Amino acid sequence: MARIAGVNIPTNKRVEIALTYIHGIGRSKARKITEKLGIGPEKRVQDLTDQEVLHIRESIDADHNVEGDLRRETAMNIKRLMDLACYRGLRHRKGLPVRGQRTHINARTRKGKAKPIAGKKK
User: What angle do CA 40, 42, 46 make, to 5 degrees?
Assistant: First the structure.
C-alpha cells in the first residue's frame, strides 16, 4: 500500500482514482498530476515503482495544499468569519446554511434532527 501525504491509497485502483482519496485532490488535479509525471491513465498503484511514488509524493508536497494543512486553513477561514461577526460568521456560529438556502422547510442536514415544540398540538 502506497502512503502519500499521510494517506494510505488503495493499491488495486488506477492511480488517477487512488489519488482522490487524499483530501484536497479531486479528479482533475489527479489527472494533471499523472499527466505531468508521465504516468499512464490505465496504470494501477500496485504497478508503480518506488521512484514513481516518490515523484508523486514530491509533486503533491510542492504544488498542492492537501490534508492537514488544507483542513487547518479551512477551519481558520471559518473561525475568522465567526470572529468578525459578519453575516456568514453568524450563520456558521448558529449552525444554519451559510449560502442563502431556505430554512423554513429544508436545511435538515445543517440544522440537525427536527425538535418537537412543546404545547404545539391542539
Answer: 95
The neighbour count for residue 119, using CB atoms within 10 Å, is 6
Residue type, 97: P
Residue 121 has pLDDT above 70, yes or no: no
**Per 3-state DSSP, what percentage of the chain is helix, strand, and coil (rounded to 5)?**
55, 5, 40
Please tell me the pTM assigned to this model. Answer: 0.78
Those residues whose C-beta lies under 8 Å from the C-beta of residue 114, and which sit 6 or more positions away, are 108
- pLDDT digit string, tens, across residues 16-36: 999 999 999 999 999 999 999
Q: Which residues of 8-39 are buried (b: 16+ CB within 10 A; e: fewer)?
A: ebeeeebbbebbbebebbeeebbeebbeeeeb
